[in-house]
Amino acid sequence: MLEVRGLEVHYGGICAVRGVDLDVAAGEKVALIGANGAGKTSTLKAIARMLPARGSVKLSGEAIEHAPPHLLVRKGLALVPEGRGVFARLSVLENLEMGAYVRDDKAVVDADIERVFGLLPRLKERAGQTAGTLSGGEQQMVAIGRALMSRPRILLLDEPSMGLSPIMVDTVFDVIREVAREGVTLLLVEQNARLALSLCDRGCVMDGGEITLSAPAAELLDNPAVRAAYLGE
Amino acid sequence: MDIFIQQIINGLVLGSIYALVALGYTMVYGILGLINFAHGEVVMIGALTALTAIGLLVPSGLPGPVVVLGGLLIAIPVCMTVGFTIERIAYRPLRNAPRLAPLITAIGVSIVLQQLAMIGWGRNYHTFPPLLPAAPHQFLGAAITDLQIIIIATAAALMAALVWLVTRTRLGRAMRATAENPAVARLMGVDVDRVISFTFVLGSALAAVAGVMVAANYSIAHYAMGFMLGLKAFTAAVLGGIGNLGGAMLGGLLLGIIESLAAGYIGDLTGGFLGSHYKDVFAFFVLILVLVFRPSGLMGEKVAERA
């Protein structure tokens, strides 16, 4: 589904991502874990063409590293950005409609809005409210619901637990689990490694802009080095 | 009392025009955080283009209002093209430059357009031929002409249409999303460059209408008319809260009314020491008051959120 080769991101003279190779198979759930500044978010942003980068990125075999960024969503790629990026002055409903911006089958879009409301009942209650008035967890739900509205084949999630209370984190991860169950391919960037690995099939550990270890999630959860470095044991 | 009502009517006419121009400033600011100082010149180009077209249409013997409408319909696409071109060649290359660069460029574009207009249309005043019925109607002891009614009604209709566009359509939603967060809007599939172009084109179309209104209202147009008008409309946008559509409309109307009342009463209030030609002072006095006491404008939210 997603094939990344030799991805490099530079900020001025600093190299944040140094030649990352990454594969995500259709239906697979992959967690990208690592410390602050390891290059996880830069990797996701580079894949979604929010940052200038070198290297090749293929989506279902099609090279996308030169495609205009606004066309990626049409190719089935959706990103829930770091810090959620909800449109604070738009209503919850309008945020969801923005998620379906590239789709014009109104009846199906309306059905999908109902589906998202079914998945995230909290949003239905708040449909008419501007997104800026919502709590952090609710905004995260808006961001995830909005991403689902494009009917992505692959969903990139950047730190969905960031800044949320533990209860909210559980709720948000329940939603992500539910989304994964529907067969959407996931690439999840997360600092909370335990949570991410418990949800995903495979984990990639990033350190200093490189992927240093890639293994089935269960294996990583048992790996003494990973446990010491990322699981706080 | 009838002077008061008369000045309110005059103020509404003037305010409607300011509001249409202010919308152009505020829409561009809302999306790009840029003060498009060349916007006043687009109004001037609209007025002079329409006058030229009207001059060519008059000999055809068509009825006056049809001739004016013809001039307007030619001025609108011309201004849209000018607005599109300005953004494309002057602002887009500076999209990621420090904020001062596009601001200085905007002033430069304004000067260039004004000089080009001077070369093309000359330094003289162009008069608007008397094509519209000028006989005033009596209204609450004051006089109101058909032209004034048309200006107020047209401006109101255009503003209602704009609000509908921005709040109710897919394109309007994309404009608001882009204004808030262009990077995320792009993720949603919005072609941000196109939305920005559209914003300039839309603002320029309103500027064209405003230009024809000014020319018709004062029966005169001139290559330098855009400067003061643009400055006043910008004041109106700041008064209402720049970046806010409702604010631009309210600010425009208020500024028009304040200015007209000032023109009507300033002589009496100062015992004849200051005449009505000091009315411009009031517009900028209002601007200073707003900037001191309510920098975000009457309807503005936190200013410079994305500065």
What does this entry look like structurally?
The complex is a heterodimer of chains A (233) and B (307). The model of chain A has no long low-confidence stretch (mean pLDDT 91). Chain A is globular. In chain A, the strands form two sheets. A six-stranded mixed beta sheet of chain A has the order 6-7-8-3-9-10, with helices on both faces. Chain A is 36% helix and 27% strand. By secondary structure, chain A is an alpha/beta fold. Chain A has nine helices and ten strands. Chain B is mostly helical. Chain B has a single domain (3-126, 136-293), classed as ABC transporter involved in vitamin B12 uptake, BtuC (Orthogonal Bundle), CATH 1.10.3470. Chain B has eleven helices and four strands; from the N terminus they run H-H-H-H-E-E-E-H-H-H-H-E-H-H-H. Chain B has helices spanning 2-32, 39-57, 64-91, 100-121, 146-168, 170-180, 182-187, 192-218, 225-240, 245-269, 279-293; strands at residues 126-127, 137-139, 142-144, 220-221. In chain B, the strands form two sheets. A two-stranded antiparallel ribbon of chain B has the order 1-4. In chain B, strands 2-3 form a two-stranded antiparallel ribbon. In chain B, helix 1 runs parallel beside helix 5, helix 1 (2-32) crosses helix 9 and helix 6 (170-180) crosses helix 8. The longest helix of chain B has 31 residues, at 2-32. The radius of gyration of chain B is 19 Å and the shape is globular. Residues 303-307 of chain B have low confidence and may be disordered.
Main attributes?
heterodimer, A: 233 residues, alpha/beta, 6-stranded mixed beta sheet, 4-stranded antiparallel beta sheet, 10 strands, B: 307 residues, mainly alpha, ABC transporter involved in vitamin B12 uptake, BtuC, two-stranded antiparallel sheet, 11 helices, 73% helix, globular
SSE topology string of chain A: EEEHEEEHHHHEHEHEEHH
Helix-strand category of chain B: mainly alpha
Largest interface: A-B, 25 and 17 residues
Shape of chain A: globular
